[in-house]
Amino acid sequence: xxxxxxxxxxxxxxxxxxxxxxxxxxxxxxxxxxxxxxxxxxxxxxxxxxxxxxxxxxxxxxxxxxxxxxxxxxxxxxxxxxxxxxxxxxxxxxxxxxxxxxxxxxxxxxxxxxxxxxxxxxxxxxxxxxxxxxxxxxxxxxxxxxxxxxxxxxxxxxxxxxxxxxxxxxxxxxxxxxxxxxxxxxxxxxxxxxxxxxxxxxxxxxxxxxxxxxxxxxxxxxxxxxxxxxxx
Length: 232
Hints:
Layout: H1 2-6, H2 11-21, H3 25-34, H4 37-45, H5 49-53, H6 56-60, H7 67-78, H8 82-89, H9 102-112, H10 114-121, H11 127-141, H12 144-160, H13 167-180, H14 189-192, H15 197-203, H16 210-221, H17 226-229
Helix pairs in contact: 2-12, 7-10, 11-12, 11-13, 12-13, 13-16
């Protein structure tokens, strides 16, 4: 956690923390996934998302405001790739990664939908956006590791940000929005790509990240850059 606080881009540490603290929560979450018709349908397809999400040419051909086009623009702007996240997750040696079972497929799907969740929820890649999104993620899937990172991220940001930005409220909002929304992991991600982002958010009951956006406005009103002033 100290290494992640020192550098929020050190994504490898996120996987260390989650694997160390999540215990059996991923198995319980997978069982919940498999109790739904949507989940069973996605397991039958066993889609591996990174090659699809990293093929930006067809995504750019989708309509303006679509999920796919917005995702491609976001990833290019941030200098990210789905394959890069896969590589970060596999830096830590683990023999279970060679076991091609259903639970491993599910764990990979949780990883591979992370950046798509940025698009669907409206939380950015600044430190506050990442912490709020992890709050959202914890409400959708559980896991002590995810909750711990969200809590510590919010705590560190609150030390640096103006008090009236109400950072803790932003993290609570992320958790609340995650509870209210349909489970993103159960959605057919490929089918969402050509659809309008606003329409998908309404359908999945994903609420506006109002407290998060307000925090950015407050920080700017103090004459500060939100990406610097709220760095964890």
